[in-house]
Amino acid sequence: METAIKITKREENGVFIFEFAWELDETNADKIFTQLYKDIGSFEWAKIILDLAGLKYLNSKSIGYIADIFSNIEETERQMFIANCDEWVKDILELVWITTIVPTVDSIAEAMAQMA
Predict the structure, then answer these.
(1) Residue 4 near residue 23 (C-beta atoms within 8 A)
(2) What is the model's pLDDT at position 1?
(3) DSSP code per residue over 4-50
(4) Could you tell me whether strands 47-58 and 104-105 are parallel, antiparallel, or unpaired per DSSP bridges?
(5) Across residues 62-73, what is the average pLDDT?
(6) How far apart are CA 65 and CA 30, in angstroms?
(7) How many Å apart are CA 107 and CA 112, to the nearest integer?
(8) CA 49 → CA 27, 42, 55, 66, 93, distances in Å?
(9) Could you report how far apart the first and last alpha carbons of the chain are, in Å?
(10) How far is CA 107 from the centre of its chain?
(11) Residue 65 pLDDT more than 90?
């Protein structure tokens, strides 16, 4: 049985914002990130914010996908931010040092300001 997850994509001033809700785990990570890669398309133009405000859990596979997306963004000299982590998710991201690789901010507004 697949764990419930919802991803909402919107564009704001040329920035794709992906809002995550519920949980990312072994049952849904491959499907979700396959779709996310399709939604991003060419990494050459992408500016991305992953809004994790509604995310309550993520597994190591999901963290690997996030790191891979950032590595593609970084290669093209574009920008990506993680925003709005709840404390538990932020603790997990800090534990595996992803926050030292992917810029992590408290709000979408802060990410947008740094992209400008």
Answers:
(1) yes
(2) 82
(3) PEEEEEEEETTEEEEEEEEEE-TTTHHHHHHHHHHHH--TTS-EEEE
(4) unpaired
(5) 95
(6) 9
(7) 9
(8) 24, 16, 14, 11, 15
(9) 42
(10) 13
(11) yes
pLDDT digits (tens, 9 = 90+) for 3-52: 889 999 999 999 999 999 999 999 999 999 999 999 998 888 889 999 99
Alpha-carbon dihedral sign for residues 85, 88, 89, 90: positive
pLDDT at 2: 85
Q: Determine the distance from the C-alpha atom of residue 8 to the mean position of all C-alpha atoms in its chain, rounded to a whole number.
A: 12
- Given the structure tokens 């049985």, which residue do they identify? 1
**Which pLDDT tens digit goes with each residue over 73-101?**
988 889 999 999 999 999 999 999 999 99
Give me the residue label for tokens 């992408």.
46
Torsion angle of C-alpha atoms 35, 31, 6, 83, degrees rounded to 10: -70
Structure tokens at 70: 């950032």
- Helix (H) or strand (E) holding 74, with range, is helix 60-75
